[in-house]
Structures are given as C-alpha cells and as structure tokens.
Amino acid sequence: MPSINEFQKIFLDYLQDNAFEQAPQGLYQPVDYMMQLGGKRLRPVLVLLSYHLFRDDFRPALPVALAMEVFHNFSLVHDDIMDEAPLRRGQATVHHRYGLNTGILSGDVMLILCYKYLVKVENSALIPALVETFNEVAIKVCEGQQYDMDFETKEDVTIAAYLKMIEYKTAALIEGCMGMGGILAEAGAENIAHLKAFGRNIGLAFQMQDDILDTFGDPDKFGKKVGGDILNNKKTYLILKAYELAGEADRQRLKQWMRSTTESEAEKINAVTQLLIDLNIQDLAMEKMISYQETAFKHLAQVKASAEKKQILLNLAEALLVREV
Questions:
Q1: d(CA 325, CA 311)
Q2: Beta partners for 1?
Q3: For the chain (length 325 residues), average pLDDT per consecutive 10?
Q4: What is the number of other CB atoms lying within 10 angstroms of the CB of residue 176?
Q5: CA–CA separation, 78 vs 82, rounded Å?
Q6: CA–CA separation, 248 vs 251, rounded Å?
Q7: Distance between CA 273 and CA 3 in Å, rounded?
Q8: Where are the beta strands (DSSP E) in the chain?
Q9: I want to staple 53 with a disulfide (CB 3.0 to 4.6 A). Which of 79, 86, 163, 305 is the partner?
Q10: Judging by beta carbons within 10 Å of its beta carbon (0-12, 13-18, 19+), is residue 286 exposed, middle or buried?
C-alpha cells in the first residue's frame, strides 16, 4: 500500500515533467515560479487518494490532480494581488516579483490551463462530469472570496454567513478534489456523494482549526505570528461567537477593539484574547471543529471501499487536524 509520501512524490515528479517552460517566458515563467514554491500539495494528493480507493493504479488521475493544484495556486496568485501581499510561502509573491500586470495575466492563464489538464483524462466520456464539477468548485471559491471581502466592511455578519463563506472559499476545493477523484474512478453516485461530504467537512474543520490557532496557537508550532486575525479585524467564528455570548458591556468593548487600529499590537491582541478566554470561546470553537471532523469520518465510513485504503485518508485527515495549540 503506497504511503502519503509516495503519493506526493509521484505527483511532484508529474509536476516536474509538466513544468511550464515555454514561450512567451514573460507569461509562463511566473506560472512555473508559483507552482514550484512548495506547499503541502494536499489537494492533488486528495484527488489521487480518492481515486485510489477504487483503483490500485492511481497514475491515470494525475492530470486531474495537476488541474486542481494549478487552480489552487491560481487562486493564491489573485488573492495575493487583492491582499497586496508581498510574501507567499516565505518568497516574493508573483506580482511583487514580476509586476502587477504579469500577476493578473499569468493567473488568468493558470485558470485556462486547468481545463487543458482536465481533458487529458484517458476516459473522455468522463470529461463533462469533471468539467461540471470543476466549474461548480471554481464559482464557489470566487463567491467565497467575495463574501470574505464583503465581510471587511459589513457590521452584521452572522455565524451562518461566516460558515457559508469558509465552506465556499476553503472547503469547496477540498470537496471538489475528493469528488473528482471519485468521478474519474467511476465510483458511483452514492460513493461520490460521501467523498464530497467527507472533503467538505474536513475543509470546514481545517479552517476552524486555523482560526483557533491564529489566536491560541504556539507561534513556534503554528509557523506564523499569532493574533493576525485580531489585528486585521477579521470576523472569524471566534469573534462572532463572542459577540453572540457576551454581555452588552463586553460586546461593546469587543466591537471597539475590532474596529481599532491601535499602535500597540500586543495590547489589542491581549485584550481581545482575554475576552475570548473569559467566554470559553476556544473550547466552543474546538467543539465545532470536532463536530465537522466526526461528520467527515462518518461519511468516509459509508464509502464502499477497502478499510485499508480508507485508513490512509483517515491518517491524512487526522494529521492535518492535530496541529498543536
């Protein structure tokens, strides 16, 4: 049985064999730069793993895996432009290294390249279903990004609206990767539905955990400075739950902090974090995260595939969701 590392290696070899080294270099060199920046390669591995549940040789799924990884990186290129971010994975973002116009155009061609790889699958009869699923995913990711942008200036964001936003912006792509692997393996409608539900709920749990770690994580283990969401006045599940549970005085204090641009970053982070601690928000968010994880595992249990193969997916999911606070 292949290990996760073997899935990753085979995908990386395929990525190297399909490097974007072509003319005009001004268009494709930034694409290749972005694709080589690293990352967990979670999404392509999920495509391969979902396909592998039903077929031992998972190499036929590599074009779809690459399409989903190119799409993920396309979304990051354009997100970085919108956020005016200078760094991605510790390196200069595409638009900072190559210029804004190049960042836009190279991102555009990455989206089109996704379709190039989707139609490379061996069974051409599956292309319509793959493209339809991909289109649904791509639209949801864009809608999720717009919701996220809208929330920056919207005062009355609800928890339900926030959960819909992260479902679209984060979880939809993971859901799509699982579903497309199942479609390509011709796993049947019931199995595909359970795979997609597994991916959606794992994506929600992962984002919920990320929100928790951003406030309560150990920066040495989390890999970045904690408190970033608080400093950026992000309306995360933690903040919205605090608004819901706080008394009037604490709610107003929290709103004042989350509108502020105080020069003392530490003061703001400490004040908001203490309010969250007083309201037991970390535990409540953890309960929500665990509920998504348990729902995901229940759906995977319903997939009609070997327990040994499903265990690889479970191990990956558990590894993603056991980052230390």
A1: 25
A2: none
A3: 92 96 96 93 97 97 98 97 92 96 98 97 97 98 96 93 98 98 98 98 96 87 76 95 97 93 86 97 97 98 97 92 64
A4: 28
A5: 6
A6: 5
A7: 39
A8: 87-88, 91-92
A9: 305
A10: middle
Tell me the C-alpha to C-alpha distance, in Å, between residue 248 and each of 11, 242, 276, 287.
53, 11, 15, 25
**Strand 91-92 to 87-88 pairing:** antiparallel
Match 């971010």 to its residue by tokens.
85
CA-CA distances (angstroms) from residue 277 to 153, 242, 246?
26, 10, 11
Give, in degrees to the nearest 5, the angle at Cα 154 between 159 and 229: 65
CB distance 181 to 64 below 8 Å = yes
Phi/psi at 228 (5° precision)? -60, -40
On the CB side of 164, CA atoms within 13 Å amount to 9
- In a 10 Å sphere around its CB, with 0-12 CB exposed, 13-18 middle and 19+ buried, how is residue 290 labelled? middle
Are 287 and 217 spatial neighbours (Cβ–Cβ below 8 Å)?
no
Evaluate whether 128 touches 149 at the Cβ level (below 8 Å). no
Place of tokens 């003061």: 267
Q: In the structure encoding, which two tokens stand for residue 31, read together?
A: 């694409």
Q: How far apart are CA 247 and CA 224, in angstroms?
A: 32
Smallest CA-to-CA distance from 36 within 67, 10, 7, 73 is with 73
